Amino acid sequence: MSFEDELGEALRQAGDGFTPDRQALVAGGERRGRRLVFRRRAAVIGGSAVGLALIGTVGAFAGGLLSGSGGSGGSGTADVAAPPALSSPPPAKGVPGSGTGAVSDEQMVAWLTQLLPGGRLTEAKGHGTGAGPAGMTGASGVYDDGKGNAAIGVGLNRVDPKGASNAELITCPDKNKFDYDGCTSETLADGSKIMVYQGYEYPDRHVLTKAWRATLVTPQGYLVDVQEWNAAAEKDEPVSRPNPPLDPAQLKALALSPLWRPALEDLPPAHPESPRSAPRPGAPVGPVLDGLLAGYGIPVVAKGDEGRSAYAVLDDGKGKSMVSVEVQSVGKAGPVDSLFAGATVMPDGTKVVARQTPGEKGGKNVVWWNVDTLRTDGTRVIVSAFNSKNQESDASRKEPALTMAQLKEMATSGKWAEYAG
Is the CA virtual torsion 314, 317, 320, 323 positive or negative? Predict the structure, then answer.
């Protein structure tokens, strides 16, 4: 599962090294991984909310802070009940906000240690503000309060305060589409926004490793992401306790601590977020989907609209079945051309490909049926159906509620020409 979102130049550069596969392109908006993973490995938004692990900020975790290798500033074992005295950061060696190294690796570990409520922090590692790739500032370790070892870490970053994606970073994922235990999102008195998410490392829960996080975005563009697990590592370690050690209130308090301010102020400002192209005029996707489904007379028990994509959960009495649609503008030639090799071509020039594959997000016995269309003006419409209420849940029926013929009828409907304007 991919985790995306505009969290800085480092993430965009990293993305240049990946080659999308055909199935991933077909998934299109179904994955919407950008929002989730940040919130998860929801996930995020599906595993961190949200999906979420935060790639740009929590790149620190992936970069070795939680892996037991890489990183610098290891502090060994710290007694959290008696934290070391914190000294003020040394004066900046350069211009503030330029990654001067005003906050050291050791200082980051010391602050995390001080903020934990008793217990011990072992395998502690930190990344200060003076070295390493963007998004690597943070601290982490294995925390033990006497109830079981738990991986925990904090990542700091800067985002464009005017960026359109900021709202996505602190918005709880759609409960109809993703399974998690709890999530709150609120705006604070100073305009900061914080999300506290309680989810799972694996969306399908084949291992019951819980991943909880608090994500804070301030009006200045400061980003603080705290994440914890109920195991000694994010992956490949057995569950050591029923829940991660910090409850939602404690997670929130750790993210809001003023101790992080010197490090955040020393980080370089984020690159301005690229403007998003304005949506095409015409009917929103959700109402178009509603109208198409109305003709089949199957009760809709849940639905959601995300602009260029929408979904509905149908229940005909034989089990819930999700139906989704994604509309893209890909131009008259582009990277999706290979997906339509051997496609059926309709009299108006629309290319049509029908596929039936296993589900890709872990739900047991889930099947994914979809009809993918490409019109001559470059408008691509993908209509999908599943035999479950969402892609992460186990199958609730043998086949989706709609037939392949009905999916084709929806995908080739003239309503999409009206939507495209």
Answer: negative
